[in-house]
Amino acid sequence: MTDTKITLPESEIPTHFYNIQPDLPTPLLPPLHPGTKEPITPDLLAPIFPMGLIMQEASQERMIEIPDEVRDIYRLYRPSPVFRARALEEMLDTPARIYYKSEHVSPVGSHKLNTALMQAYMNKKEGVKRLATETGAGQWGSALACACKLMGLECMVYMVRVSYDQKPYRRIMMNTYGADVVASPSNLTEAGRIALAENPSSPGSLGLAISEAVEDAVKRDDTKYALGSVLNHVVLHQTIIGQEALKQMEKAGDYPDIIIGCHGGGSNFAGIAFPFLREKLSGARKDLRLIAVEPTSCPTLTKGPREYDFGDVAGNTPLLMMHTLGHKFIPPPVHAGGLRYHGSAPLVSHVLAAKLIEAEAYAQGEVFASAIKFAQCEGTVPAPESAHAIHSAIHHALKAREAGEKKVILFNLSGHGHFDLSAYDAYLTGKMDLMT
User: Fold this and answer.
1) Are 416 and 104 in contact (CB under 8 A)?
2) Residue 9, exposed/middle/buried by CB under 10 A (0-12, 13-18, 19+)?
3) DSSP state letter for 362
4) pTM greater than 0.90 (yes/no)
5) Do 290 and 387 have their domain in common?
6) What residues in the chain have per-residue pLDDT under 50?
7) pLDDT tens across 155-183, in order?
């Protein structure tokens, strides 16, 4: 196929999300109650989430229908295109064929809107008036702010302090959509006040911001909590990415040998990988490689043990079986803010433990070098998070050149970097810690 951009009509937006749980070789271990350490029941999650999302969290249905109201809003940007990175291939002088799924075309500039719309819809359907959440780099906060406005809900965002300071335009974007945004740790919650008492200049963490958002939600009858990654229902909603990509690769007449996504909490990686992993599990594509890429500063999958841990600093969330660096972990303030979470989605951790996927970690210096190569070849300035997938794709394309192999590589360009230019400036002016 000679096309550079591979598109699908709106009629081919998937009608269902793909749930990998029924296809797993062994069942997922259940979340545990933070107090009793017993498997948690749906009623115990009701103060935090709407029942519709709780049911999706534990569902064993392989395909879960996308409501028409959500699917109609998806038409604003879905199906997202797949691009053949011809200029990048030429610059690398590689026989590999490189493709990328371009989720940065959404109104908020990232894949996060896929689940934000679904979560806002499910909450609205059950009479919730307000959502509270956390955000790191601001992509998730922007997405939920947008989704809440489109669904007629209020939105409260606790933004990790270091990103709040580094990325003011993300905050402005959230405010533009009508959301309230505060730097975390804040004085609005007990978890925030404790953190500030211990360290008044705390850079914050996603785990701490989650503690604040959950506390906010449980103290108000009109509010529920929304999470942008990690949980099963979030991973579920993102599989719309991989389902579209399967059709687009078929249209291109190619099938990936390697699929790559950056990894923070796991939803964007799982979103592109799980529909393809289904084919590996069925035996149809036994040699398919699926690679999750994280920063060396927060090496959850590559260095963290797989064990039960809290999702937040305060220990208020259910215990999840996941790869974790410990819920008290405060990562260095690297520029890939969305990849600084201490844990990993239980589903991603599960398939890594089963050796169905792989994990890699890279320092931000080499990641930004690859991001600039990509921008200069393909035109899009990628988000620092997405740049990790780009770096891995370049690494494997160069390995293909050394081996003389015509590998097909597909990665997820999960977001643009238009609001991350201070990070690029730090790299270009030599102010970035390249080894972190």
Assistant:
1) yes
2) exposed
3) E
4) yes
5) yes
6) none
7) 999 999 988 998 899 999 999 999 999 99
